[in-house]
Amino acid sequence: MEFDYVIAGAGSAGCVLANRLSASGATVAVIEAGGSDRHPWIHIPAGYAKILDHPRLTWGYRTAPDEGTAMRALDYPRGKVWGGCSSINGLGHVRGHPSDYDLWAQKGCTGWGWDDLLPYFRRHESFAGGGEGRGAEGPQPVEHLAEVPELLTHLGRAAAAIGLPVLADMNGPEREGFAPFQQTRRGRRRVSAARAYLVPALRRPNLTLLDNALALRVVVEDGRAAGIAIRRDGAEQVIRARREVVLAAGAIGSPQLLMLSGFGPGAALQAMGIPMLRDMPGIGANLQDHYIIRLGFRLGARRLSANHRIAGWRLPLEALRWAAKGDGVLTWSPGMFSLFARTAPGLEAPDIQINGGPLSWAPLPPEPGRRFGGIRIGVPEAEPGMTLGVWQCRPESRGSVTLASPDPAAAPMIAPRYLATEGDRACVLRGLRLARRWMAAAPLRGIVAGETRPGPAAESDAELLDFARETGGTVYHPCGTVRMGGDPTAPLDAALRLRGVAGLRVADASAFPDIPVCNINATVLSLAEKAADLILSAGRG
């Protein structure tokens, strides 16, 4: 089978590329390891809590134990389905701070500054609220919350009381402050990248989707990427590309596929018995992610929390409300609001993001030898409560993705190395104390009745860091593992081309030089939109 373009991965980036490249009239094949997105929990916004560890819809990855996580191995959900992580995430649609992308440009990523990327943010979105700099005609619907909980009004007043603005549009010109979340949703349903981009494009005869197909390696002939070898229905074949091969398998899948193909740290590849085509230590390095620490608070009134609305016999009532009215708890995200703040002098952008909602989860007892226990996400507490998730926006820590086996079906080794620097630990402490100061503000007296996690007994820096290490987890934002840059150690150039081989690009979150200050899906969509332009321009040239 031969096509003009062969794309590995039908996640957020791959869906954009499939649509835009096939719209040009070129023949396009998309290779996806997962299957269709028909599972009902995908399309119900709150269904994310049911599918993050689904054995068919996710890869089932776990991280390597590390000091930053108190030697815990963490679940590391990655979508294995049409739409990839956009089909299992929390629906958050958040643009980065303009300085995020200007910093990319300063690192040699010419054409990736904020002014360069803003047209692509506008191109991909259709925002029902309108406003300065927002897109109105893109494929990806973006909406305000279908139900705005009463608690958000009180939280906004408390944010103002501690000196932070309250924003009507979290993706507008001003980013620092408190705002309700925006979701990749239309009405009652999630709209993943598969639904926004891929499914409509599948009507075109020049687009072929090969799902339930495992990519084995990039086939290179005479120094040029000639296609991708796959295994499907037990048989192996090569899907050949006349023009380009584009990897869009994500921050874990793209470096893994490159290493399986002979591109990566040479000694490690040779030790695995993989013929080395090009020694590129930067492939699999530079892994960045946001590390979230969840605080719990008791609310003073039952009506302010949704705990009682999803417990026992009341959950079916919410399902009826969702079906009949298109709102209610089943339209909620894990983050119903977000607060961005600078917690140190001299910063050009927020260094802390706090997300949350008026739900709190049943506690889990501490494991032996640890002081703090976790929570059972999806199982509400009996008493009214809320959860705040605190994370550092621009972590200094860098991890890696490496091969654990030369078997393409084996999971790679994922080592995020959270909290590895003193700067990261200090920032997280500032974030936790900011959350507490926010909850203690005068407008929340009588609204917030007390802290339940970790509780007032955890006050010292050492105690709070123990809490962060023993209970924190990923926010599902891995990126940077095949970074672009102007320096020769960057695997990709500013056109997303892999150095040293023709006809091969990487166009997904792995190409980020640095993580944006926020949830990353909107940036992935914008990167893929720009990548499609770069690819089509090269094809015309």
Automatic annotation (TrEMBL):
The keyword Chloroplast belongs to this UniProt entry's keyword annotation: no
KW Flavoprotein (keyword) present: yes
UniProt xrefs under SUPFAM superfamilies: FAD-linked reductases, C-terminal domain (SSF54373), FAD/NAD(P)-binding domain (SSF51905)
Keywords for the protein's UniProt record, in alphabetical order: FAD, Flavoprotein
Limits of the Glucose-methanol-choline oxidoreductase N-terminal domain: 3-291
Domain of life (superkingdom): Bacteria
Cofactor names: FAD
Domain (Glucose-methanol-choline oxidoreductase C-terminal) ranges: 395-528
Pfam families with a match to the protein in the record: GMC_oxred_C (PF05199), GMC_oxred_N (PF00732)
Family the UniProt entry places it in: Belongs to the GMC oxidoreductase family.
PANTHER family associated with the record: CHOLINE DEHYDROGENASE, MITOCHONDRIAL, GLUCOSE-METHANOL-CHOLINE GMC OXIDOREDUCTASE
Protein's name in the database: GMC family oxidoreductase N-terminal domain-containing protein
Species of the source: Siccirubricoccus soli
